[in-house]
Amino acid sequence: MLRIGPGEEDDLSTVVETSQARTQDSASSLSSDPKLPAQRRLRYAVEYAAFWLVAKVAGALPLELCACASAWCWRALGRFSSRSRRAALQLAQSLPELNVAEREAILSQVWDNLGRNFAESFHIREFIDDPSRFEIVREEALREFAETTKTFVIVSLHSANWELSALGPLRVGLRIAGIYRSIKNPWVDAYVTRLRQPLYPAALLPKSPQTPRRFLRLMRRGVPVAMMCDLREARGVEVPFFGRPAPSTSFPALLAVSDGLPIFIARTLRQPRSHFRFEWKVLQPVRGGASREEDVTATTALIQSCFEEWVRERPGEWMWVHRRWG
Questions:
Q1: Backbone phi and psi for residue 124, each to the nearest 5 degrees, phi listed first
Q2: What's the whole-model pTM score?
Q3: Which has the closest alpha carbon to 27: 242, 218, 189, 226?
Q4: How many whole angstroms separate alpha carbon 111 and alpha carbon 118?
Q5: Contact 257/264 with Cβ under 8 angstroms?
Q6: What is the average per-residue pLDDT within 256-277?
Q7: Which of 74, 174, 254, 318 has a Cα-to-Cα distance from 12 of 20 to 30 A?
């Protein structure tokens, strides 16, 4: 449920409307920006036209057929990408106990999962409307947690279909806010944001210097905020991840430590035929250290330790193609 105090409904509506308007403005401003070079404007238009065509075809196909076809394409083409070499290197450094064949099999699963994610993103509404596609582990306990916990922080990782991590809280009546990294092409960004918006009815905000302040405003109104926290954050704190220091965002830990908030950590697990299982648990922030900075670092390490445990369980469902270390 969305918990807001008396007289705050208008303020919250303003935040939501602002986030939606920003999505529309990012696309409309492209055609009216006189500073945008004509060559880049043309490139964006061509990219968007190609994306729009793929989106329409993918949305028209049955979900499972679309996912299988996309997975085949991504497996076939992904191995030629420079990101495939990066993923192979990170796998070798992180899971040295595996042989070459085992790591290659995981890498194939990574591309398969990314391809399915791409296709499934055009069918988000189908996942929302069809409860049979999304099983929540300990659903009654999740409902009780949502009803009895006033404020908390939600974190997840890019594993299986990470877009659907927001569906667990949504299914039990929570209206959450989310953060995302903008796509360079503003037309494509606006289209993708519209696809994601139903999962984040409170607000869906692009990552920017102003986002933490907006998140704090939402949290003061009792709106749970959700973040993906497993990727490299250059300005973050270094904590162990697969035995090596990894720059990680400390923002969720800072929120949790400052106000003693529980951390709701969740993941999706891929099941056959575009079905998913939602797993979750609650972590308590580390408090009582020599300084708040130490507590934030320790809490960040706790979150990343949980992520590592989950990635080790299903390495083929994590996004190894992104640079995580160094």
A1: -55, -40
A2: 0.88
A3: 189
A4: 11
A5: no
A6: 96
A7: 254
Cβ burial of 231 (10 Å; 0-12, 13-18, 19+) is: middle
Is-contact 58 66, C-beta < 8 A? yes
CA distance 181 to 195: 14
Strand ranges for the chain from DSSP E: 134-136, 153-156, 177-180, 203-206, 225-228, 237-241, 244-248, 263-271, 275-283
In sequence order, which residues have a C-beta less than 8 Å from that of residue 130 and are 6 or more positions away?
Answer: none
Q: Tell whether the torsion through CA atoms of 52, 57, 62 and 63 is positive or negative.
A: negative
Q: CA-to-CA distance for 36 and 260, rounded, in angstroms? A: 46
Rg (CA), the chain: 20
pLDDT in tens, 137-165: 999 999 999 999 988 999 999 999 999 99
Tell me the two tokens of residue 172: 């039990």
- Calpha distance 197→205 (Å, rounded): 10
What residue segments make up the domains of the chain, in order of their start?
Answer: 37-317
Give the count of alpha carbons within 13 A of 104, CB side only: 4
Cα maximum dimension of the chain: 61
CB atoms within 10 A of CB 309: 9
Element (H, E) at 67: helix 63-78
